[in-house]
Design brief:
It holds the Pfam family FlK. The protein is an alpha+beta fold. It contains three helices and five strands.
Length: 138
């Protein structure tokens, strides 16, 4: 039996967040407007939604890690609004999953994009990361 059979194209996840002062552009160094939702925070919510979609379905010892992301944040959202992020698995190949992502506030679509995540064995991945750090320190 395939340990990853419960991960499939078309899977979806929705995440919602009421925008607080901590989510604004001024707090992310992405602008000087203190009452607008920050693009880096939108990206983080999108990534979080993708990870929440697949990570709980992975076998013990496995996690997903981000590889690439492309996001277009084309409408402003004010402090106090609620942002809804919807993600869907759009494809997979050799342990790499791709996602289509969309974000909305109460007035309509505010952004969209794509993201890819690879499935890795956590211990193996951390051993490689630690070896890399060791190589850099020498």
């Amino acid at each position: 039996m395939d340990a990853f059979a419960n991960l499939y194209k078309g899977m979806t996840h929705t995440l919602q967040k009421k925008i607080t002062i901590d989510d604004t552009a001024l707090n992310y160094g992405s602008g000087k407007i203190e009452n607008l939702f920050a693009t880096p925070r939108l990206v983080a919510l999108m990534v979080e939604a993708c990870a929440r979609l697949i990570d709980p379905k992975l076998p013990d010892g496995f996690v997903s890690v981000g590889n690439s992301i492309s996001v277009d944040h084309f409408k402003p959202t004010l402090l106090g609004a609620t942002v809804t992020v919807e993600v869907v698995v759009s494809g997979f190949n050799n342990g790499k999953y791709t996602f289509d992502m969309a974000a909305y506030d109460e007035f309509g679509k505010i952004g969209e994009g794509s993201h890819s995540r690879s499935l890795v064995h956590l211990d193996s991945f951390m051993n490689k990361a630690n070896a890399r750090e060791y190589d850099i320190a020498i």
